[in-house]
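Students often ask what a 'structure token' actually looks like in practice. Rather than answer in the abstract, let us consider 1-aminocyclopropane-1-carboxylate oxidase homolog 4-like, a protein of 155 residues. Its sequence is given first.
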Amino acid sequence: MSCLEARIMASHYYPYCPQPELTAGLTSHSDPGVLTVLVQNEIPGLQVKVGEEWLDVEPVEGAIVINIGDILQIMSNDRYISVEHRVLANPCKEPRVSVAVFFNPSLRDKMFGPLSELLSDAKPAHYQQFTFAEYMKRFFSKELDGKTLTNYYRL
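Now compare that with the structural description of the same chain:
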């Protein structure tokens, strides 16, 4: 389905912050691609939004975190929902370290939208068609601010 052609690895280093209540770590956002695979050390800080509440993702030694991205949400016509998440500033003396691998489709001109196999009269498309390049252009032209981008393509 050409959804995992582009892989990007990003390492994040969050040093000790003496005033974490005055500092943002990484603001609220959802990942734009298909899937994100994350490995983190034992220092907490990752949170996911469930309803209107932020919940801590407690680090577990040897575990990986898998995030569903916006493109998978759109292709599944909301069957799978991308996760809104953020990282708090680090109040621990030890640094927080994480490595994420983002699995994305290619930026070529292929059109994305809900998969036709998932649509019916009872389950119409929730999103319009678009290219991933167009989606990424919008993603990088805005501040990270939750999940507003998926709403832009909603019908």
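One point worth highlighting: Helices lie at 70-75, 132-140, 148-152. Ask yourself how you might have guessed this from the sequence alone, and why that guess would often be unreliable.
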